[in-house]
Amino acid sequence: MLIRAADGTRLEAEWAAPEDAWAVAVLCHPHPQYGGTMRSLVISALFEALPARGIACIRFNFRGVEASEGEHSEGRDEPLDVVAALDEAASHPVLARGAPLALVGWSFGADMALAVDDSRVAGWVGIAPPLRFRPANAYAATATDMRPKLLVLAANDEFRAPSEIETATAAWSATRIEIIPGASHFFVGRTDRVVASTAMFVETLAAS
Q1: Is 100 helix (H, G, I), strand (E, B) or coil?
Q2: Which of 47, 67, 128, 165 sits at a 20 to 30 Å CA gap from 40?
Q3: Long-range CB contacts (within 8 A, 24+) of 134-137
Q4: pLDDT value at position 136?
Q5: Which residue, 164, 144, 62, 157, is CA-closest to 105?
Q6: CA angle 94, 195, 66 (to 5 degrees)
Q7: Which residues pair with 187 in a beta bridge?
Q8: Rounded to the nearest 5°, which phi and psi values hold at 106?
Q9: How far is CA 173 from the centre of its chain?
Q10: Residue of 91, 90, 31, 41 whose CA lies nearest to 63
Q11: What CATH number is given to the structural domain containing 57?
Q12: Average pLDDT over residues 129-142
Protein backbone atom coordinates (compact mmCIF):
# COMPACT_ATOMS: atom_id res chain seq x y z
CA MET A 1 0.00 0.00 0.00
CA LEU A 2 0.99 3.65 -0.39
CA ILE A 3 0.57 6.47 2.11
CA ARG A 4 1.15 10.15 1.42
CA ALA A 5 3.26 12.62 3.37
CA ALA A 6 2.19 16.23 3.83
CA ASP A 7 4.48 17.37 0.99
CA GLY A 8 2.83 14.90 -1.40
CA THR A 9 5.54 12.22 -1.31
CA ARG A 10 4.06 8.74 -1.59
CA LEU A 11 5.54 6.10 0.68
CA GLU A 12 5.45 2.32 0.64
CA ALA A 13 3.81 0.90 3.77
CA GLU A 14 2.47 -2.38 5.12
CA TRP A 15 0.08 -3.41 7.88
CA ALA A 16 0.14 -6.45 10.12
CA ALA A 17 -3.13 -6.16 12.03
CA PRO A 18 -4.64 -9.06 13.98
CA GLU A 19 -8.39 -9.07 14.46
CA ASP A 20 -7.98 -9.02 18.24
CA ALA A 21 -5.62 -6.02 18.30
CA TRP A 22 -5.59 -4.01 21.53
CA ALA A 23 -2.88 -1.51 20.55
CA VAL A 24 -1.16 -0.08 17.46
CA ALA A 25 2.52 0.58 16.79
CA VAL A 26 4.21 2.57 14.01
CA LEU A 27 7.66 1.16 13.18
CA CYS A 28 10.43 3.39 11.76
CA HIS A 29 13.45 1.77 10.09
CA PRO A 30 17.21 2.53 10.25
CA HIS A 31 19.32 4.73 7.99
CA PRO A 32 18.48 4.39 4.26
CA GLN A 33 22.02 5.19 3.14
CA TYR A 34 23.35 2.23 5.11
CA GLY A 35 20.87 -0.29 3.76
CA GLY A 36 18.02 0.43 6.15
CA THR A 37 14.51 -0.47 4.99
CA MET A 38 11.24 -1.43 6.62
CA ARG A 39 12.45 -5.04 6.26
CA SER A 40 15.63 -4.54 8.32
CA LEU A 41 16.30 -7.01 11.12
CA VAL A 42 14.85 -5.35 14.22
CA ILE A 43 11.87 -3.85 12.39
CA SER A 44 11.07 -7.22 10.81
CA ALA A 45 11.31 -8.93 14.19
CA LEU A 46 8.88 -6.44 15.70
CA PHE A 47 6.55 -6.60 12.69
CA GLU A 48 6.38 -10.39 13.00
CA ALA A 49 6.19 -10.75 16.78
CA LEU A 50 4.08 -7.84 18.01
CA PRO A 51 0.90 -8.71 16.05
CA ALA A 52 1.02 -12.19 17.60
CA ARG A 53 0.76 -10.39 20.94
CA GLY A 54 -2.21 -8.29 19.81
CA ILE A 55 -0.32 -5.17 18.75
CA ALA A 56 -1.20 -4.10 15.21
CA CYS A 57 1.83 -2.72 13.35
CA ILE A 58 2.38 -0.48 10.38
CA ARG A 59 5.85 -0.25 8.91
CA PHE A 60 6.90 2.00 6.03
CA ASN A 61 9.86 2.96 3.89
CA PHE A 62 11.21 6.45 4.30
CA ARG A 63 11.33 8.62 1.19
CA GLY A 64 13.73 7.38 -1.45
CA VAL A 65 13.74 3.79 -0.16
CA GLU A 66 12.56 0.92 -2.38
CA ALA A 67 9.05 1.79 -3.66
CA SER A 68 8.78 5.09 -1.75
CA GLU A 69 9.02 8.26 -3.80
CA GLY A 70 11.40 11.15 -3.20
CA GLU A 71 14.98 11.30 -2.01
CA HIS A 72 16.74 10.90 1.30
CA SER A 73 17.03 14.32 2.95
CA GLU A 74 19.45 13.63 5.84
CA GLY A 75 16.61 13.69 8.35
CA ARG A 76 15.14 17.07 7.40
CA ASP A 77 11.93 15.84 5.75
CA GLU A 78 11.74 12.30 7.13
CA PRO A 79 9.66 13.39 10.15
CA LEU A 80 6.91 14.11 7.60
CA ASP A 81 7.08 10.42 6.68
CA VAL A 82 6.62 9.45 10.32
CA VAL A 83 3.53 11.67 10.56
CA ALA A 84 2.14 10.09 7.37
CA ALA A 85 2.46 6.67 9.02
CA LEU A 86 0.76 8.03 12.13
CA ASP A 87 -2.06 9.32 9.93
CA GLU A 88 -2.54 5.84 8.49
CA ALA A 89 -2.24 4.21 11.91
CA ALA A 90 -4.94 6.53 13.26
CA SER A 91 -7.42 4.88 10.90
CA HIS A 92 -7.32 1.62 12.88
CA PRO A 93 -10.71 1.27 14.60
CA VAL A 94 -9.23 0.04 17.89
CA LEU A 95 -7.87 3.53 18.56
CA ALA A 96 -11.39 4.91 18.64
CA ARG A 97 -11.99 2.62 21.60
CA GLY A 98 -9.13 4.14 23.58
CA ALA A 99 -6.31 1.78 22.60
CA PRO A 100 -2.78 3.24 22.72
CA LEU A 101 -0.70 4.20 19.69
CA ALA A 102 3.05 3.70 20.16
CA LEU A 103 5.74 5.25 17.99
CA VAL A 104 8.73 2.93 17.69
CA GLY A 105 11.99 3.50 15.82
CA TRP A 106 15.39 1.87 15.48
CA SER A 107 18.62 3.86 14.96
CA PHE A 108 17.93 6.60 12.37
CA GLY A 109 14.26 5.68 12.68
CA ALA A 110 14.45 6.23 16.43
CA ASP A 111 15.89 9.70 15.90
CA MET A 112 13.05 10.53 13.50
CA ALA A 113 10.40 9.10 15.84
CA LEU A 114 11.72 10.98 18.88
CA ALA A 115 11.65 14.20 16.86
CA VAL A 116 7.89 13.86 16.25
CA ASP A 117 5.71 15.24 19.05
CA ASP A 118 2.22 14.23 17.94
CA SER A 119 -0.82 14.32 20.21
CA ARG A 120 -1.98 10.92 18.97
CA VAL A 121 1.11 9.15 20.34
CA ALA A 122 0.70 7.49 23.73
CA GLY A 123 4.42 6.77 24.11
CA TRP A 124 7.73 6.41 22.26
CA VAL A 125 10.24 3.57 21.99
CA GLY A 126 13.68 4.59 20.76
CA ILE A 127 15.86 1.57 19.95
CA ALA A 128 19.57 2.48 19.85
CA PRO A 129 18.93 6.14 18.96
CA PRO A 130 22.18 7.89 18.00
CA LEU A 131 20.49 11.27 18.63
CA ARG A 132 22.64 12.70 15.85
CA PHE A 133 20.41 12.75 12.79
CA ARG A 134 18.37 15.76 13.93
CA PRO A 135 19.55 18.93 15.68
CA ALA A 136 19.56 18.62 19.48
CA ASN A 137 16.67 21.07 19.80
CA ALA A 138 14.53 18.87 17.54
CA TYR A 139 13.97 16.54 20.50
CA ALA A 140 13.02 19.29 22.93
CA ALA A 141 9.24 18.87 22.69
CA THR A 142 9.38 15.11 23.19
CA ALA A 143 12.04 15.38 25.90
CA THR A 144 9.84 17.62 28.06
CA ASP A 145 6.61 15.75 27.28
CA MET A 146 5.22 13.76 30.20
CA ARG A 147 4.10 10.88 28.03
CA PRO A 148 6.22 7.74 28.57
CA LYS A 149 9.41 7.08 26.65
CA LEU A 150 11.53 3.92 26.58
CA LEU A 151 15.09 3.94 25.22
CA VAL A 152 16.37 0.43 24.47
CA LEU A 153 20.15 0.64 24.19
CA ALA A 154 22.78 -1.87 23.11
CA ALA A 155 25.53 -2.44 25.66
CA ASN A 156 28.13 -2.74 22.89
CA ASP A 157 26.74 -0.13 20.49
CA GLU A 158 29.33 0.66 17.82
CA PHE A 159 27.91 4.07 16.94
CA ARG A 160 27.23 5.74 20.27
CA ALA A 161 27.91 4.38 23.74
CA PRO A 162 24.92 3.91 26.06
CA SER A 163 26.60 6.18 28.61
CA GLU A 164 26.52 9.03 26.09
CA ILE A 165 22.81 8.53 25.47
CA GLU A 166 22.18 8.37 29.21
CA THR A 167 23.96 11.72 29.62
CA ALA A 168 22.19 13.30 26.66
CA THR A 169 18.75 12.28 27.96
CA ALA A 170 19.34 12.72 31.70
CA ALA A 171 16.95 15.66 31.85
CA TRP A 172 14.23 14.07 29.72
CA SER A 173 10.83 13.64 31.37
CA ALA A 174 9.12 10.28 31.84
CA THR A 175 12.03 8.42 30.22
CA ARG A 176 13.22 4.94 31.12
CA ILE A 177 16.42 3.40 29.76
CA GLU A 178 17.01 -0.31 29.31
CA ILE A 179 20.43 -1.58 28.28
CA ILE A 180 20.56 -5.01 26.65
CA PRO A 181 23.73 -6.91 27.67
CA GLY A 182 25.86 -8.32 24.88
CA ALA A 183 23.96 -6.47 22.17
CA SER A 184 25.52 -4.55 19.31
CA HIS A 185 23.77 -1.71 17.49
CA PHE A 186 22.24 -4.33 15.19
CA PHE A 187 20.93 -6.58 17.99
CA VAL A 188 21.89 -9.78 16.18
CA GLY A 189 20.84 -12.61 18.47
CA ARG A 190 19.12 -10.13 20.79
CA THR A 191 16.00 -9.15 18.84
CA ASP A 192 13.90 -11.24 21.22
CA ARG A 193 14.91 -8.88 24.03
CA VAL A 194 13.95 -5.85 21.95
CA VAL A 195 10.57 -7.40 21.15
CA ALA A 196 9.90 -8.28 24.78
CA SER A 197 10.84 -4.81 26.04
CA THR A 198 8.74 -3.10 23.38
CA ALA A 199 5.71 -5.32 24.01
CA MET A 200 5.92 -4.79 27.76
CA PHE A 201 6.13 -1.02 27.25
CA VAL A 202 3.02 -1.03 25.05
CA GLU A 203 1.25 -3.13 27.68
CA THR A 204 1.98 -0.42 30.27
CA LEU A 205 0.52 2.18 27.89
CA ALA A 206 -2.66 0.14 27.58
CA ALA A 207 -2.90 -0.26 31.36
CA SER A 208 -2.47 3.43 32.13
Answers
A1: coil
A2: 165
A3: 134/75, 134/79
A4: 87
A5: 62
A6: 80
A7: none
A8: -120, 130
A9: 18
A10: 31
A11: 3.40.50.1820
A12: 95
131: left (phi over 0), alpha (psi -120 to 50) or beta: left
Contact 72, 22 (CB under 8 A): no
4 φ/ψ angles, rounded to the nearest 5 degrees? -125, 130
Q: What is the largest distance, in Å, between two alpha-carbon atoms of the chain? A: 42
Q: What is the mean pLDDT of the chain?
A: 97
The overall pTM is greater than 0.85: yes
Q: Do the beta carbons of residue 177 and residue 166 sit within 8 Å?
A: yes
Count of domains for the chain: 1
Which domain does 145 fall in, by range?
2-207
| Beta strands 2-4 and 10-16, pairing class | antiparallel
**Short-list 128, 136, 126, 203, CA closest to 171:** 136
Q: What is the pLDDT of residues 155-195, one digit of tens each?
A: 999 999 999 999 999 999 999 999 999 999 999 999 999 99
CA 178 – CA 162 distance, rounded (Å): 10
Distance between CA atoms of residues 73 and 179, nearest Å = 30
Please check the confidence at residue 143 and state whether its pLDDT lies above 90: yes
Among 29, 92, 40, smallest CA distance to 63 is for 29
3-state secondary structure of 81: helix
For the segment 1-43, what is each residue's pLDDT rounded down to a tens digit? 999 999 999 999 999 999 999 999 999 999 999 999 999 999 9
Nearest alpha carbon to residue 22 among 91, 76, 78, 97: 97
